[in-house]
């Protein structure tokens, strides 16, 4: 399967990706997927972990585009611990020079990489393998009811979902507004510059 994660991908202010190294020996492998000093050196952000999550997805599952409105939410640091995904960050910050644009990264256990997503950036991914395990570190605890979502198949966003995969989307995500509708409803975060 060929997935062009570059496509319309652009750099987004605050989003940072780091290639990781797998250390192997006869027992298997070891990957250090988070180090606070490395993230701080790459972003200038002091990241305190308040919550850790994992999601397990079947091939073709699309999760997101999830985000929080102003004043709420979580910055996230994500990696794919098992399988492979196309991970997408979408700039949802009204007033941002890259509003409505996205950046994509292929995340996999075979070629490990982690991505940092600041507040105001929407997050989504699609599982490319029969089983994909994503791990998330969050700088704040999740507050039920505050997380919002943009429809992951919004044609104006044109996210890089492979055409040859089944598309499995939750009811919540498939009934979500498009980016344009969310903007008109005043549901998006503001760009802080």
TrEMBL record:
This is dTDP-4-dehydrorhamnose 3,5-epimerase. GO terms for molecular function: dTDP-4-dehydrorhamnose 3,5-epimerase activity. Coiled coil: none annotated. One of its GO terms (biological process) is dTDP-rhamnose biosynthetic process. It comes from the Bacteria. The active site is at residues 66, 136. Pfam families: dTDP_sugar_isom. GO terms for cellular component: cytosol.
């Amino acid at each position: 399967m060929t997935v062009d994660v570059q496509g319309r991908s652009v750099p987004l202010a605050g989003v940072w990706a780091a290639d990781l190294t797998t250390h192997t020996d006869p027992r298997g492998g070891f990957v250090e997927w988070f180090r606070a000093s490395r993230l701080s050196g790459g972003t200038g952000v002091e990241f305190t972990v308040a919550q850790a999550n994992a999601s397990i997805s079947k091939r073709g599952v699309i999760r997101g585009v999830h985000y929080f409105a102003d004043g709420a939410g979580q910055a996230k640091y994500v990696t794919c611990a098992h399988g492979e995904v196309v991970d997408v960050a979408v700039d949802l910050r009204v007033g941002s020079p890259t509003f409505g644009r996205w950046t994509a990264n292929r995340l996999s256990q075979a070629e490990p990489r982690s991505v940092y997503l600041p507040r105001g950036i929407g997050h989504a991914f699609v599982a490319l393998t029969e089983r994909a395990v994503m791990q998330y570190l969050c700088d704040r605890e999740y507050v039920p009811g505050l997380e919002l979502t943009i429809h992951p198949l919004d044609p104006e966003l044109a996210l890089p979902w492979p055409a040859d995969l089944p598309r499995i989307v939750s009811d919540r995500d498939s009934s979500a507004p498009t980016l344009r509708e969310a903007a008109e409803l005043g549901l998006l975060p503001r760009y802080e510059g």
